[in-house]
Amino acid sequence: ANAVATSISTRALKPRVAIGIAAVMNFLGAISFTGVAESLTKSIVDPFSLNNGEFVVLCGLIAAVIWNLMTWLVGMPSSSSHALIGAIAGASIASASSFSVLNWSGFTTIIIALIISPIIGFTVGYLIYSLFKHLFHDKKLGKMNRRFRFI
C-alpha cells in the first residue's frame, strides 16, 4: 500500500496502473535480490550454524509479521526491515542463550545503515522536491499530473 499510495492519492496514476506496476516491480525485486537477504542474514548471525536454524528463522519471521500486524492495527508506522533484522537477531540470541552468537561487526554495520538511510532519503527527497518546486512553480497541477503520468 505504501508503494502506491502517493501515486494514487495525487491522481498521478490510476489505481489499476499503480498496483500493476507495484506488483511487477515487487515480483522482480523478490526474484532478483535474494542474495541481499542471504548476506543480510549472515551479516547479523548465521542462524543455520545453530542446531535448530530453520526453527530460529521461522520464529524470527513470525515475530516480524506479528510486530508488523500489531503496528498496522494501531496505525503506527514501522519498518519491516527493522522488524525482521531485530526478530532474527532476537530469535538467534534466544536459541543460543548468548549474545555471542551475533556477528557484531556486521550487525553494527547494518544498524548504522538503518539509521543513516532515512536521513539520506530525507535529504535527497528534500533536494528533489526543491528542484521540482523551482522548475515547475508556475505550472498548473492538473496539466503537470497528466504529463508526469508518462514518465
TrEMBL record:
This is Inorganic phosphate transporter. Pfam families: PHO4. GO terms for cellular component: membrane. The keyword Protein biosynthesis does not apply. GO terms for molecular function: phosphate transmembrane transporter activity. It is a multi-pass membrane protein. It is found in: Membrane. The keyword Transport applies. Keywords: Membrane, Transmembrane, Transmembrane helix, Transport. The chain crosses the membrane at residues 17-35, 55-76, 83-104, 110-132. One of its GO terms (biological process) is phosphate ion transmembrane transport.
